[in-house]
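Lecture 7 notes: from sequence to structure.
We start with the chain below.
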Amino acid sequence: MATKKTPAPKATAKASTANAKKSGTSAAKKASAKAAAVKKAPSVKKAPAKKKPAAKKSAPVTYPFAVGDNVVYPHHGAATIIQKKRINFAGEKRDYFILEVATDQLIIQVPAENALERGVRPVISRSKAQQVFATFKDEPQEAGSNWSRWYKLLTEKINSGDIFQVAEVVRDLTHTQQVKGISPALKRMLAKARLIIVSELRFSLVLSEEDAIKKLDRALPKVEVPEDA
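Predicted structure tokens for the same chain:
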């Protein structure tokens, strides 16, 4: 009796093929999903570099005086600021006023930032000049018994830069000279004090040096000394 051949399991083969296709498709989908995830992953941005704060601009320095001003410098009298100059001193650049003294033709350099501290001041007004002349009318002070102390006091007044104190020196020494005479040292001191006052009167009253000297001499009291004294 002939035996019948058993047909091959086609369905099973087809199922296997289908499963293989499915698994391949699934793997492909997973691979593309991973690739998409990688692409979509946010990129790490570098933090922007911090900008350095801009250097603050220093405000312009203002000074109490300017080029062309007439001022007074202690012990030397009136002067004109002819220039402002930047000078390197001890490794530091500083502004200096260049002063031309009116009577001595002397040039002085003064740090601009502390000119006031060094005694530099504006020239007195016309009304103040009249008060200077009034000082000459006050009672003069004499040396007394302590001559060295008086000499020191007169020197301090000349160096003070205060025109009223310098006027007192002129008044006192002029009086002493007329009454009993003064030493060569005091004569030099009197000449210096007169020069300081004349230099400032020239600017405050707008006079020539010659006219300022005449005005000074007219304002000083004259002492009449008896011939038998």
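Points to note: The longest strand covers residues 77-89. The radius of gyration is 49 Å.
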